[in-house]
């Protein structure tokens, strides 16, 4: 017996999609999760200082408001607790099969089913939803000798909590979003911290603080207070899209704020000079922190800007010096443009998704892929953001997928498949619009494929995406009715 919907992944996308399907009356849903617990990136990233850079009230589902967040920017444990709460409250926890990794999904056109192979067995689905996210597979740098290191080494998203860093000589490779949260924490206990920087990030003020008891009381008891807070934050963040996607020159205003922040927090002119990026603000992810720059000024912290040449059994070598260390932490990001890897996805006529995406990932509205009927992606290509909450984008996608699932049921369809010309037109539009954005201002970022295509980000306002995904357009799809078998 085939399941109505099988969802891969139990992060915000998978849990939210399962909840929305249940509320729509679709109860035969299975969520496949390779790990032993739900949460996606918020389960995996347990490094010291892990937190979100989107305010709490916006980094949560609109249908499940939480008025007792402890801080304006939520810490990792609290976000993970929130996801567990949502899964329990809305009755989807028992839909999750933990410890079940998908290895292959193959579309059986005759039966109009997805045949899904996992590490624990086989199952069939009428509809397959990928909620794997973009930031789930760690990227380790191809540095010579990396495997030769005799000490402890690990990626930031696979933090080794059994390693005590107190009094240790620690090397941290990378200065991205994870690193700026890690540095202030481990600088407090490590004897020496060597931070290896390839390119300086833009780091701006993070107005974080605990919520006061009276603020929580107002949010809990005053009608409209929470909605107003959420709307205010949304409008403030959404306005930044003008600089990212419409008028990149406006980023100059934010850059002035960055320079002011840097000057206030870093007194040493030489160190300050090393922390000024050599690319336009916004081209790479803008980071938020009030503790990163002060941590770099500590006497036990050393910022190293010379390129790493190799890793040795005892440490890290640049062209000019060798640094003996006890622990190496790689805060080097994720394989963000390989959306469904390492799964093998096979659609109509035996076509593999990796082959279909050899020139870069493509999906109409970031959700449907031509030649792969009844397959829907959450947080797929062209749906990441540089300025607002991805939860807002996910909720737009939930509604679109629900519309497709309802169309299958209402019209007695075996499958729907987005037309190739529709997908091609969307991809051309995205690539054309992307040229005007700050993300194509000349830097290399995790938004890009190896050949320089930005395939992760949405080049527009989030409300425009919500409007575009309000309902599926029947003219965009080819269909097969159940009577055709």
From TrEMBL:
Domain of life: Bacteria
Entry-linked InterPro entries: FAD-bind_Monooxygenase_sf, FAD/NAD-bd_sf
Range of residues in the leader sequence: none
Name of the protein described by the UniProt record: NAD(P)/FAD-dependent oxidoreductase
């Amino acid at each position: 017996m085939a399941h109505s919907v099988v969802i891969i992944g139990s992060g915000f996308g998978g849990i939210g999609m399962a909840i929305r399907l249940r509320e729509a009356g679709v109860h035969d849903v299975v969520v496949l999760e390779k790990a032993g617990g739900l949460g996606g990136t918020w389960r995996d990233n347990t490094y010291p200082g892990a937190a979100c850079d989107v305010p709490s009230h916006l980094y949560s589902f609109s249908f499940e408001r939480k008025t007792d967040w402890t801080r304006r920017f939520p810490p990792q444990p609290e976000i993970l607790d929130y996801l567990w709460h949502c899964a329990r409250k809305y009755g989807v926890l028992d839909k999750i099969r933990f410890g079940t990794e998908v290895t292959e999904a193959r579309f059986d056109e005759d039966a109009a089913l997805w045949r899904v192979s996992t590490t624990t067995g086989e199952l069939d689905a009428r509809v397959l939803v990928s909620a794997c996210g973009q930031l789930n597979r760690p990227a380790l740098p191809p540095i010579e000798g990396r495997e030769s290191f005799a000490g402890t080494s690990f990626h930031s998203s696979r933090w080794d909590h059994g390693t005590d860093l107190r009094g240790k000589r620690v090397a941290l490779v990378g200065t991205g979003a994870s690193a700026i949260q890690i540095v202030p924490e481990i600088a407090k206990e490590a004897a020496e911290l060597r931070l290896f920087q390839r390119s300086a990030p833009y780091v701006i003020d993070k107005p974080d603080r605990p919520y006061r008891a009276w603020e929580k009381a107002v949010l809990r008891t005053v009608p409209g207070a929470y909605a107003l807070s959420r709307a205010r934050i949304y409008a403030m963040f959404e306005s930044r899209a003008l600089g990212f996607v419409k008028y990149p020159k406006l980023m100059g205003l934010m850059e002035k704020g960055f320079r002011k922040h840097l000057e206030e927090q870093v007194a040493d002119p030489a160190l300050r000079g090393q922390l000024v990026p050599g690319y336009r603000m916004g081209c790479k992810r803008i980071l938020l922190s009030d503790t990163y720059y002060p941590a770099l000024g500590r006497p036990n912290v050393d910022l190293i800007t010379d390129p790493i040449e190799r890793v040795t059994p005892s440490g890290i070598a640049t062209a000019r010096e060798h640094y003996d260390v006890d622990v190496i932490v790689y805060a080097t990001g994720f394989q963000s443009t390989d959306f469904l890897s390492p799964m093998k996805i096979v659609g109509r006529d035996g076509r593999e998704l990796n082959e279909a995406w050899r020139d870069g990932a493509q999906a109409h509205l970031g959700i449907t892929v031509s030649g792969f009927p009844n397959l829907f992606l959450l947080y797929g290509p062209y749906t990441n953001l540089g300025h607002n909450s991805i939860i807002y984008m996910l909720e737009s996608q939930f509604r679109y997928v629900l519309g497709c699932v309802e169309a299958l049921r209402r019209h007695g369809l075996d499958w729907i498949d987005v037309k190739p010309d529709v997908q091609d037109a969307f991809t051309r539009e995205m690539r054309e619009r992307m040229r005007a954005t700050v993300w194509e201002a000349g830097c290399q970022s995790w938004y890009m494929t190896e050949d320089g295509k930005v395939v992760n980000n949405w080049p527009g306002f989030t409300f425009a995406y919500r409007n575009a995904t309000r309902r599926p357009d029947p003219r965009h799809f080819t269909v097969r009715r159940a009577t055709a078998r």
